[in-house]
C-alpha cells in the first residue's frame, strides 16, 4: 500500500499538538482541509486513528502505533532527502522553486544568470502554486524553496530569507466608483464583495481578504478563483475586489482592472521560504544570494 507522506506528516502533527486547530495553524492549512486529509488517511488504512472530544483529539490504539512508526519513517525520509541533495550538489542538478501568482515576475534572466555563475551546471525549475496547496509543494517535497508575498508571521512557520516588504493594494474593476480616488481607506472596502482564493489555501485565504484588519467584520465573497488569471478576470467582470501586492499593477496589467493603495492595511513581506526541518543546501543558498543581488522589492526598486 502506498501512502502520501504528506498525510503522515499531517497526522503526526495532529498527534503532537493534540488539537486540530493548533495543528492546522502549524501546517498552514485550514482546519476543514486538515480534517479532510485525516479522514482520507483513515479511509485508505481502513482504521480509526483519532478519538475526538471537546478537549481535542487523542490517538486510538491504531493511531498511536501509526504515529510511532510514522515519525521514524518521516525522519528517515528526511535523511534520505538530505543525502540525495548533498550528492546532487557535487554533481549539478535542478533547484525547484515554487511561486504564487505574480511573484514569478520578480525572477528574471539576471537572477538565473547570477545563480548559474554561483552554481555551474545547475538549473532552476519554477513551479506555480495552484492555490490549493498552501505550502506550494514544500510539504510534499516537490519544491525546495518558495517565493511568497505574505505576513511576517510566516517566519514562525518556515525558515525565511527576507527580500523586502511591499504594500498591499486593492484591485478593482475600472468601472468601480472607487477608481475615482487616488487611494482608499480600508473602511470603505469592508462591505464590498471580494474575490477569494479557495478555502483549501488555509491562512492564505484570510490574509488576502485582510481578515486580521477587518476587526471581526465578515467578508462577503463574490467569487472564488483558483489561479491569478481567474482572480483578475473575476475582478475585471465586477464580481468583487481583491487585495494584492502593489507590484501587481505593473506585472499583470489589464486595461479593465485598476489598482489603488489602501490606508489601514499592513504590508506584505517578500521572501524565500523552506521547511525548518530541511537545512538549506548550497544550491538554495546560492539562489537566495542571487535573488538578493538582482531583485528589488518595494521601496528598494
TrEMBL record:
It comes from Kitasatospora cystarginea. Belongs to the LysR transcriptional regulatory family. It comes from the Bacteria. Pfam families: HTH_1, LysR_substrate. This is LysR family transcriptional regulator. InterPro entries: LysR_HTH_N, LysR_subst-bd, WH-like_DNA-bd_sf, WH_DNA-bd_sf. Gene3D superfamilies: Periplasmic binding protein-like II, Winged helix-like DNA-binding domain superfamily/Winged helix DNA-binding domain. Keywords: DNA-binding, Transcription, Transcription regulation. Residues 3-60 form the HTH lysR-type domain.
